[in-house]
Design goal:
This protein is α/β, with parallel strands linked by helices. Helices cover 35% and strands 35% of the residues. Strands 3, 4, 5, 6, 7 and 8 form a six-stranded mixed β-sheet that branches. Strands 1-2 form a two-stranded antiparallel sheet. The chain is elongated and about 60 Å long. InterPro entries: LPS_assembly_LptE. It comes from Candidatus Rikenella faecigallinarum. One of its GO terms (cellular component) is outer membrane.
């Protein structure tokens, strides 16, 4: 009887301790201190790369905003959020990665590079400026302009996951 009582007391104490923490963990892997941070803002990511895909900037900006809105409890605001993301697309290139026996490219790689500035006003130790890069491969029998429709969303999704995890997974 005493052991059972001690077990219930211990479980109750554990629940009390864990429920009073202000850092919340979710299945998305995000760790946000909601007691300090209530809002997030995402500035438009301008495309400063030498080669420009017209839909890349809005796709990246929208995808990051959507992920933050759907996988956190933060309110997305146009500017000056407790957490803020800004940056620019610095690289967009297509290079051969697989060469055939007769020295012709048979596969190309589209690489997108993004410079990101993340500011956490309330916990500045988590702020950073970092460059993220990701890629997708496509066969040379199709043009880059044809491959972009599939590759850009795929690469942007990977980039956004990397940015989100770097900014909001502090554990």
């Amino acid at each position: 009887m005493i052991k059972r009582h001690s077990l219930f007391l211990l479980l109750g104490l554990m629940l009390l301790v864990t429920s009073s923490c202000s850092v919340k963990y979710s299945f998305s892997g995000a760790s946000v201190n909601y007691a300090l941070s209530k809002t997030v803002s995402v500035s438009y990511f301008n495309n400063m790369a030498a080669m420009v895909a017209p839909l890349l900037s809005p796709t990246l900006t929208d995808e990051l905003t959507s992920k933050l809105a759907s996988q956190t409890r933060l309110q997305v605001v146009p500017e000056d959020g407790d957490l803020s993301f800004s940056g620019e697309i610095t690289g967009y290139s297509s290079d051969p990665v697989a060469i055939s026996g007769d020295e012709y490219a048979i596969q190309n790689r589209l690489t997108i590079t993004v410079k990101v500035k993340f500011v956490n006003k309330n916990e500045p130790q988590y702020s950073f400026e970092k460059t993220f890069s990701n890629y997708g491969d496509y066969n040379t029998d199709i043009l880059l302009s044809q491959a972009e429709n599939t590759l850009i969303p795929e690469i942007v999704e990977k980039l956004v996951d990397d940015i989100f995890n770097e900014a909001l997974s502090n554990w």
